[in-house]
Write a structure and sequence with these properties.
about 260 residues; mainly alpha; two-stranded antiparallel ribbon; 11 helices; about 65% helix; about 0% strand; elongated
Length: about 260
């Protein structure tokens, strides 16, 4: 409580057990490890609930540094804790900036890094050993089963990200991703490359134009087809697009 409320740094927490006295000796118990337990629990909770990886990454790095400072020998010295810290931060950053491909790749690398670091966690970061599966579960949810259908996999990652954003009340992220997911769905339906930036812009413009035609007379430039290649856009998508566009504008322009 004092650490959070006042910002003090606690180096040692001890308890003098007067009631446990024996032959005039009053034992003193070192309770400092309980602070570390609380730190690991809080850090893991921040990542699992909100995607903030900074605290858990800092603890992993400090656990590896502490081992070397203690001069316990290089034979069993941990070498995979810092890479795991880097990987958990990479996943957090990919989620923060709405990057489906980076999210999937970062999640896969984090899952691998945690497996490599697991033996070292048991010896150098013992409190994290029990919490490890919670972090691994976050990573695994963004790693769909390997499939030859790369487009389907990309869409599945976007869908899982969207569910994660909504679950964790990341409504700005969810609103922005919803609109991009619709573009990806239309492109996939028409056999287009969902990762092609120029194609995405072209499809988005055409969806915009067709959506506006449902509500008002289009402007002169909108009457012209966006591309000689026709694009199939279901009516339900056009109706949804108008709502998502309004939502995106409200979020992006802070109305």
């Amino acid at each position: 409580y004092l650490r959070v409320a006042t910002g003090i740094e606690i180096t040692k927490l001890v308890y003098g057990a007067f009631d446990a006295s024996q032959d005039d000796h009053k034992p003193v118990f070192d309770l400092t490890p309980f602070l570390a337990l609380l730190e690991w629990t809080s850090a893991t909770e921040q990542f699992v609930r909100g995607g903030n990886a900074e605290p858990i990454a800092a603890l992993l790095r400090e656990a590896q540094n502490t081992w070397y400072r203690s001069k316990r020998g290089a034979e069993n010295a941990p070498t995979h804790l810092k890479p795991a810290a880097d990987r958990v931060q990479a996943l957090s950053q990919a989620l923060q900036v709405l990057r489906p491909r980076h999210t999937r790749e970062s999640a896969r690398r984090l899952d691998d890094a945690l497996r490599e670091a697991e033996p070292e966690i048991g010896q150098a970061a013992k409190p994290f050993e029990v919490l490890l599966e919670q972090v691994r579960a976050v990573a695994q949810r963004f790693v769909p089963h390997d499939t030859a259908d790369q487009v389907g996999t990309h869409l599945e990652v976007q869908r899982r990200m969207l569910k994660w954003y909504l679950k964790h009340e990341r409504y700005v992220h969810a609103g922005l991703l919803m609109r991009e997911l619709v573009v990806s769905l239309v492109m996939a339906k028409n056999g287009l490359d969902v990762s092609n930036h120029d194609e995405r812009e072209r499809v988005e413009k055409e969806i915009n134009a067709r959506s506006r035609q449902q509500w008002k007379k289009p402007a002169a430039e909108e009457r012209q087809p966006a591309s000689p290649q026709p694009i199939d856009v279901p009516k339900s998508i056009l109706e949804l697009w108008a709502q998502l566009t309004q939502l995106r504008n409200d979020l992006a322009h802070a109305k």
